[in-house]
Structure formats: C-alpha cells, structure tokens
Amino acid sequence: MSHIAIEVQLSSLPANPGVYQFYDVEDRILYVGKAKNLKKRVSSYFNKQHEIGKTRVLVKKIRSIRHIVVPTESDALLLENNLIKKYRPRYNVLLKDDKTFPWICIKKEKFPRIFPTRKFIKDGSEYFGPYTSMKTVHTLLDLIKSVYPLRTCNYDLSSEKVAAGKYKVCLEYHLGNCKGPCEGYQLEEDYNRQIQEIREIIKGNFKSSLHYFKTQMIALAQDMKFEEAQLIKDKIDVLENYQVKTTIVNPKINNVDVFTIISDEVFAYVNFLQLSHGSIIRSHTMEIKKKLDETDSDLLQLAIVEIRQRFNSNSTEIYVPFAVTLEAHLKVVVPKLGDKKKILDLSERNAKFFRQDRFKQIMIIDPDRHTNRIMGQMKKDLRLSTEPRYIECFDNSNIQGSNPVAACVVFRDGKPSKKEYRHYNIKTVDGPDDFASMEEVVFRRYKRLLEEQQPLPQLIVIDGGKGQLSSALKSLDILGIRGKIAIIGIAKRLEEIYFPEDPIPLYLDKKSESLKIIQQLRNEAHRFGITFHRNKRSKAAINSELESIEGIGEKTVEELLKNYKSVKRIKEASLENLAQTIGMSKAKKIYENFH
C-alpha cells in the first residue's frame, strides 16, 4: 500500500472507531494509536503544524497507514493496548512521558484493596495490565467502585484485631461505599466473592457478575424489597452499558486465527485476525485478483495457507465463516453465535472496510477501473446483454391530480448527466392516470430520439411496478424498438425490480452497488420531476389568483409577473407604478382588489 500517496490513503479512511498504525518506507511500524473517528484523528497529523519536534519527525517518516475498525471507542483502547504490547513501536515510547505503564493492583492481604499503580512489586499481589493510559485505569476502577463496595483504608484487618474492636467505621461506610469489614460488618467470604468477580471484569468478562446481580435482583423483588432490587438493577445497567467488549479481550478464546472473505466479480478480500491469549494482536487483509470463476471456498483455503506462512502462525484452531478443508491437525470452527461469532463478524467488517477503502482509492487513482467494475456488476446483476453505460429513468408527478408532469433523467457511466435531463408536460391525459402518462412520455422521448437519429440508451428504468412497466412497453412496441433496449421497473415498497413478461420480481442485495445506482436514478428522477411540478403548481396558483380579477387576462398577468416577479410585490406596488406597466384602468382593478 506504500506506493499510494498519503492524501489518497487519508481520503479513504472510515469515520468509525478503530486503531491506526503508521509504517515507514521500509514497512516498519512507527506508531499505534486509537481513535473515536479514524478519518478525523489520522488526518489531524497531516493538516496542522506540530509543536512537539518528535511528532514532526514521526509525520515526515510516515509512508503508509493501516487501520482496524472496531465497534466502540473502548474496544479501540483495548486493541491499541494489545498492539503496543505486541509490537512496541518506537514512537509510542518516545512520545510518552518517562513513567512506566500503569497497572491495576489487587493487594495480597485480608480484604484486598484495589488501586492503580506504576510500581510492580513482587509481593504476591495480582497486577493487571499494563494499560496505555491512566485514564483507562481510572475508568475501569470507577466502574468497579460504582458496582462493588470496597474498603479504601490501609488497616491490617486480621481476625484478631477486628474481633478486639480495634477499628471504627469511617465516612465511607456511612456513605455506602464500604460495608465495614473493619468492624466485622462484612464477612471475608462475601468480600472475596466480590474480588473474584472484579478479576473477571478487569479481564473483560462480565458474565458472572451480571448473573449474580440478576439472581439477587429477582430474589429481592420476590421478597417485595423493590427499592433494594432497583439499586441492584442500577448496577446491572452500569455493567451492561460499560462492557469492556469481549470482542477485543476475551480470556476464553486463546490462540486462534480468524479468517473471513468477501468478493465481487473481479476481486476477493480475505481478512485475517490473530488472537493470542484472548487478545487481538494482528489484523491483515489480502486482496486477491480472480483469474477464473473461483469459489469463495477455494480462494479462502489458498489464502489461509499463504497468510499463515507469511505471519508464521502456529495456532491450531481456526475460525471461518463456512467449512473449508485444511491440514488434518488444524481444528476448523464455524461459529454460529456468541463471542466466537462476534470475533468472526469483526473480521468480516474489516474485510468490507478494506474493500471500501480500495474502491475510494481507485476512484481517485484510476476512475476508469472503478466505472468498469460497477458497469460489469450491473450487467451481471440485472441480467443485461451489454454494460448499461447510458441509462434513462422516467418518473410521473401529479399531486392531487393537478398539473401532471413527467421527468426523464440520464446517467452516463453510472453518474448523472444533468444537461440531458428533460421535463414533460402531460398533454394527452386528463386527470391522474400514471399508466397513460408513462405511455405518453416514453413514446414522445423515443420517437424524438429516433427522428433525430440519436443513440438509444442501453437501459430504461421505470419508477413503478408491473403496471407502469407494461405501459412503457406499449410505447416501445408501437415504435418497434422493444427488445432493442433493456427495460426494468423498480417498485418503491420493497425495491422489487420487474422485468418484462416475468411475474416474479428480482430482489437485489440492499447493499449492492447496482441497487444503489438504480435508487439514485429513481430518486433523481423523482426530485427533478417534483421540482418542476411544484414550480408549475405555484405558477398556476399565482395565475389563477390574478386572472380571477374581473377584466384581467393571461397577457396582463404575464406582463405583471415579468416586471414584479411575485404576487407579493404586485400587492405592495402603488397605483402609479402598476399604471406604468399595464395602464390606469387595469391598474385600478388590481389595486382595488388587493386594497
């Protein structure tokens, strides 16, 4: 990717949470960072002057940018932590202060305290981390303290001293932040159960805590202790809303390789996520150019072998979206739900984002390749004999049956050609008859193109279902060009696409580019037609308001509107000014009507 200009790489970044990685000219990792919005954060490195000299040096060295998209900002934070621990990028150290990374400590003592620290003391205490930011540590500890009452004092709470009544409860007990183990108000067994649940939360596993609280809440509610049950419910809400996502750090999923594939007519994209000890440590997407009509299964099998060799992966467990045949010692899993499915979905999401990035970059670097791909896709999706380089779309507008009009919009190479758009006043139809109006406008459009020996479109799109499509076909029959132009109808409700003489509609994938272009055509025709219709209706309303004045005809109205532009200005004009435009006798009639 390093051959693509930085500006092009920036333009294709998504506005999603994720982690970005900067690489130098020799493809060495320089820096790992997290972002709530990847596009904004990464672009900020390149569009402002940095005061810190080391940041300026970093920016000068960047030659390529890679990113991993994740569901939330907290996921990005955890993934950043994993990647920094794995790769130790040079500038992640240089750009930080000289302190060590923060840890969360569960002290080895009776009724253990939990606190943040930058000192790693080997006294049998448990340390979780390191974290890349003290902010993360405080967020996690705030969450824990809001759910579990823990002691903050540093007393030696030995059984003898507590039994002797050596200590008295402090303000924390009265505030409800501590259950008072110093006076024996909380059993050690109960406190240690809390500590075990906190260990799981720090690892990212909330299940045991949630299960315990839900059981407790139901029991309290059954005993009619609704206020206490509500307090427990508040704790459940805090846990569920925070959720240090198990997608990024999950102690249950050990050393695993995850592979997913998405493909189109020409290319396939295989994403690889590598998990080590429950943490994602790598994301890589490979672009494969198809030679023949290879299946996704064939391509995925080849890609798995190649990617595992490239990254020297020794994992014996592999998650894939469908069954593939690999070496006998490898355990192949096709997850259907739960945490394993979440990690598979994350991989697929990154493959899709990679594909979108490539499309955006190609649109800038090689717009012809982008157009050719879309045209090829439309030809396949809509079962056409040729690529629809020139498309016309028709729409009728007749709100409340008045002033029926129609619009024809033109797309060339998948883009609007606005200078070729045409409006039509419906001449042969009285009242709101969509079918007859469609018949008239299609006939008039292609009769004219034939008379002027203009080229005909490769595809006609009719806004409407079977009825409008049949009406358009009648006109093509009369003109003798049916079968020479492909024609389809698109019904609004479920976006069904109808073909001539086929009662069963086609449903395209809602995310397919072919459907998006047809929808864009339809929406553009609707917008263009409605604008013309509104103008015509307002003009008709103005004319009828002025023409309803006795002795004022169409020509006088035209003359007035030419000079005054609106009825409001005509109403505000003086008698003398009106007389200069249309003469005193007519001016008096208008002036008296409005005053």
Explain this structure:
By secondary structure, the chain is an alpha+beta fold. Helices cover 47% and strands 18% of the residues. It has 21 helices and 19 strands. It has helices at residues 6-11, 38-46, 53-61, 73-87, 90-94, 134-147, 159-163, 171-174, 188-203, 207-222, 226-242, 296-310, 338-365, 367-381, 434-451, 466-479, 513-547, 554-564, 567-572, 575-582, 584-594, and strands at residues 18-23, 29-35, 64-69, 103-106, 114-117, 126-128, 256-263, 267-276, 279-289, 317-319, 331-333, 390-397, 405-412, 415-416, 422-425, 459-463, 486-491, 496-499, 502-506. The strands form four sheets. Strands 12, 13, 14, 15, 16, 17, 18 and 19 form an eight-stranded mixed β-sheet that branches. A five-stranded mixed β-sheet has the order 9-8-7-10-11, with helices on both faces. Helix 13 crosses helix 14 (367-381) and helix 15 (434-451) packs parallel to helix 16 (466-479). The protein starts with 5 loop residues before the first helix and ends with a helix. InterPro entries: GIY-YIG_endonuc, GIY-YIG_endonuc_sf, GIY-YIG_UvrC_Cho, RuvA_2-like, UVR_dom_sf, UvrABC_protein_C, UvrC, UvrC_RNase_H_dom. Interacts with UvrB in an incision complex. This is UvrABC system protein C. Residues 15-93 form the GIY-YIG domain.
